[in-house]
Amino acid sequence: MRRFVCLLLTLLLPALVSPAAAGAAPAPTVTAVPANAGRGWPVSGAQGLLDLAAHGYVEQEYLLSGEADTYAQDGLWTADGRWATHVATTGNPYTTRLVVVRPSDPARFTGTVVVEWLNVSFGVDIPVDFSQSYEQFLRAGYAYVGVTTQKAGADKLKTLDPARYGAVNLGSDALSYDVFSQAAQAVRTHPELLGGRTPSVVLGTGHSQSALRLTTYANAVQPVRGGYDGLMIHGRAASAAPIGEGVLGPLSAYIRTDLGIPVFVLQSETDVVASASVRQDTARVRTWEVAGTAHADQYGLNLYNAANARDKSINDGAPTTCDKPVNSMTFRYAENAAFAHLDRWARGGAAPPPAPPISLLLGAIVVRDADQNALGGVRLPDLDAPLAAYGPNNSGGNVPGACLLLGTTTPLSAARIQRLYPDHATYVAKFTAAADRARQAGYLLPADYAEAVARAQAAPIP
Predict the structure, then answer these.
(1) Residues near 390 by Cβ (< 8 Å), separated by ≥ 6?
(2) How far apart are CA 142 and CA 102, in angstroms?
(3) Average pLDDT of span 414-426
(4) Is-contact 58 52, C-beta < 8 A?
(5) Facing residues of 357 across strands?
(6) What is the pLDDT of residues 83-97, one digit of tens each?
(7) Contact, 160 vs 35, CB < 8 A?
(8) Where does the signal sequence lie (predicted)?
(9) Does 187 have pLDDT greater than 90?
(10) d(C-alpha 220, C-alpha 329), whole Å
């Protein structure tokens, strides 16, 4: 009887295991893109914009090819994020590209890889998280991989540089979830991507529209494919992206609390009202809301405008402009700290420090001080020793929809600055005290603390 039962299980087990549980598609292949192919540089890459060599880094581009699965929803997806899926189709061929930024000396690589789901909100790949935190990646010895994960980005590559990207093909966004999983798989199994090294930790990240897709990835795909050791979901709304095509995603979605990896939800002030209904802090989910910041800001825009001038992706390369000066709050400091905390957390270390939420009235109106800066949230020294009012939204501009997300900087009056800081020493003392609080709270890394204080010391205030 025992032999019969074993034989029966052997015959039936393959039919009882779902395709998702049985494992991913065949391993993807990786092919180096010749440096001089096409126009000679990666679209949306750092070549000619950042002096990577001075930091001991190189940028290389690869094609990633394989067969991707698509997924479909099982049952009702509720706000708790505990979502079930099944594999809808298999064997869908694709070719996409990876932009790799890594230490030129493999010995400098510390084992952490950040894989970014490149944002396509404006029809072209934008490496938002790289633009904010490349300084942290370079000084910490991380490797970075930007992935063209969606059809809009792939199609734009072929338009901008058909000679370089003629082989790129993503048939639909339904492939994006498995493509992102396979990018992590490639990072782990193709050491040539990392100068011959293999990673210790692979972190996935994505901003805005990509954050909505990463929310769905975290809740529905990561549990069955297990691609990442931690996720950074940056600038999300309360909703999530659809798992397939032609349907709306859930309108309200927490990150599931039974996920086996840590998730960091990093929000600007612009994002808070749209995500207030799904605020959460749990054993495996940490949320920071950074006061005074915008969904996108001047620091990131500077790098994007330079890339756009080179690539001519939007508006024939013209810089993005708005009605008012764009938000210049130092969001990058908080994002740098968030990545450092997530790296440690994913390695089994302590969870990131908690942060109070930005203060909201009736869940929809940001509470502000006399200078019109937000109360609560992660407090950076440029906000607690202010020279301006920092708003979450702008208007007008030459790129439809962009300025709504870029925020504003409205300098305080000379009289107000004189009252706050009657002399330079007072300004430096107040700024340094604010930086001390942020550093002690875990919101400001030592290198950023030193940069911020030096900047205050050099500022002609008052």
Answers:
(1) 269, 292, 293, 294, 327, 328, 329, 373, 374, 383, 407, 408, 409, 410
(2) 7
(3) 98
(4) yes
(5) none
(6) 999 999 999 999 999
(7) no
(8) 1-24
(9) yes
(10) 34
